[in-house]
Structures are given as C-alpha cells and as structure tokens.
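1st attempt posting a full record on here, be nice pls
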Amino acid sequence: MVFAPLVSTHAQHKPFYKGKFRKPGRFTRQKARVACPVFEDSGYPYNGIGIKLGDPFALTYKLYFTKNLAMSVDFGKGASGLYSGYFRDQFETYTEGLDSLLDPGEGFSYLNHKVKSNWTGEVRMMYQTSLDAWVKGLQAYIGLGVEWRHTEIKYEYIWQKGRNENEILHFDETRYALGPTGTVGLEYSYFELPIAAFIEVAGFADISEDPGYIRPQGGVGIRWVF
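the predicted structure (as tokens):
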C-alpha cells in the first residue's frame, strides 16, 4: 500500500513521447562517415555512378583512386541545339566546289538541317583538393582527358534547275570529332546520403574533323558514391 501512490505519481509524469530527442549539433567524424564515404580517408578507392545534365547529357562514372586523384568516364548525348549555328555553317564546307559542276542557270541553297544522332564520350584524369577551410565537404578539381564525338546530320537544300523549276534534295553527313578536353569544377559531398553533387565547365578542341575548332561545354550532376 505504501508504494501505490509512488507508482501513480510516476505514471502521471511519464512523458507521452517514448523516443529520444537529440538536439542538433555539429557533425562528428562518425556522422561524416554516414554523410558520405568520401570523408573516410582510409576507405579509398571509391566509385561514383550518376547522371550529368548539360553538354553532354550523360551517364557518368567516377573512380576515386585517392583523396586527390580520380578518373571520370562520361557517355551520352551532346546538346545539339547549342551547335545549330555551327552545323549550319558546315553546309558551306560540305558543298564547297559544287558550283563548278552545275550547268548555267543552276544553283543550290541551304534549306535546313536535322541532327539524327550526336553521341559523346570522354575520359578524364582529375586532381582534387579539399576546400573544407571554406565549406565543409567541398572540393575543387581540374582535369585533362580525351573526348570523342559521333554526329549524324541530314541536310536539306533547294536545287534551282532553272528560272521556275526548283527541287528539294537532301544528303547525310557523318562526323567523327576527336580531341583533348580540359575541365575545372567543384564537388560537394556533405549530405546525409552517400552522394556527391558537382558543377563543372570544360573546353573541347577538335583535332580530327575540324582541326582548330574549340567549343566550351560543361554541366551539373550527381553521383551515388560507394
């Protein structure tokens, strides 16, 4: 009988919520391991698989050899719309010299073009450095590599047979561009999931299809790191 009031009093003050509430605090090293495995220095090498939006729109794979050295492989579709003006100008290159084969009164002019396919692949080696002093989990990187592009284009043109006689014709061209590519970017990996987000800008120099042609490109993306 003596213990009954004590039990009753304890029951009245028992909190309804039975879980444990943790006040927010700074990330400890243990939490950093959960946030992203890239934080674990002894765990290299790591792999990252994801998607990249931009030029190209691609599947992306990254192998983190060490804390400072990595390799990325991307494969996807180039942003054809960004090259519309360039492909339009190439019509003049493909038809150069044809005027001399025409009969008097004949001529031809560009009508339009359509990119049937535009595949891009690239392999890059990267050097990374930590920017934790400014933002926890942020890294900067530079990279050099090789890029390959395969493009199929359909050109339509107007053939002037005579004063009042025209005909719409077409021809197809296949382009194989190959050359070096350079990259600078930022990668952030301080999340509650093992993911790494990145943004980068790059440049591609064609040395095969159109030597001397240089094109800026880049994109943003995310990779699952394991």
